[in-house]
């Protein structure tokens, strides 16, 4: 069995801690903003449009961080209906290539999401700058997912040993 470089395992550990922190903070902030928006609208007939924009994007933060954490544990949603028909030995042989394909697909999504965001940045009006920068979560989320899948291909032996 080949030795897995320590830097990959350390990178995974730091990423997981950071993602848990971002997901937890985003969820807490989402709850606070939603509750305050309801109270402001119902009791003071007052509301802030920016709070709704932030809340919508916080859901994306939570979703992408949760997806990254699930992919790290190899517990993400898998579209592998053929998997039940395959022999266990063949499943082991194609595990790493399938994870690598997932990394490549997420990297492609990252590339196109980033290009779309850069295009939006060029033409976004001044009153939509907050939503524009919050929308960076989409390319960043796909980058993080791609990174997780890539690191999983490199460290899958150590993950299975634990």
TrEMBL record:
The function of this protein is: Part of the tripartite ATP-independent periplasmic (TRAP) transport system.
What's the main place this protein lives? membrane
**Quaternary structure?**
The complex comprises the extracytoplasmic solute receptor protein and the two transmembrane proteins.
Instruction: Tell where it localizes.
Output: Cell inner membrane
Keyword set, alphabetical order: Cell inner membrane, Cell membrane, Membrane, Transmembrane, Transmembrane helix, Transport
User: Mind telling me what this protein is named?
Assistant: TRAP transporter small permease protein
- Family under the similarity heading: Belongs to the TRAP transporter small permease family.
Cellular component GO terms, alphabetically?
Answer: plasma membrane
- Keyword rRNA-binding recorded: no
Q: How does it sit in the membrane?
A: Multi-pass membrane protein
**Which one of the record's GO molecular function terms can you name?**
transmembrane transporter activity
Pfam families per the UniProt record, alphabetical: DctQ (PF04290)
What residue intervals traverse the membrane? 21-39, 98-118, 130-156
A Gene Ontology biological process in which this protein takes part is: C4-dicarboxylate transport
Domain annotation Tripartite ATP-independent periplasmic transporters DctQ component: ranges: 31-150
Keyword Cell inner membrane belongs to the record:
yes
């Amino acid at each position: 069995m080949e030795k897995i470089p320590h830097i990959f395992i350390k990178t995974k550990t730091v990423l997981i801690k950071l993602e848990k922190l971002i997901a937890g903070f985003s969820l807490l902030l989402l709850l606070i903003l939603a509750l305050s928006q309801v109270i402001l609208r119902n009791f003071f007939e007052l509301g802030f449009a920016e709070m709704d924009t932030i809340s919508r994007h916080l859901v994306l933060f939570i979703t992408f961080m949760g997806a990254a954490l699930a992919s790290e544990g190899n517990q993400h949603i898998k579209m592998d209906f053929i998997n039940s028909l395959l022999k266990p030995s063949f499943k082991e042989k194609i595990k790493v290539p399938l994870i690598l394909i997932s990394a490549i697909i997420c990297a492609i999504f990252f590339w196109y999401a980033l290009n779309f965001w850069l295009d939006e940045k060029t033409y976004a009006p001044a009153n939509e700058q907050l939503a524009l920068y919050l929308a960076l979560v989409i390319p960043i989320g796909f980058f993080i997912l791609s990174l997780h899948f890539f690191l999983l291909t490199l460290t899958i032996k150590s993950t299975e040993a634990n």
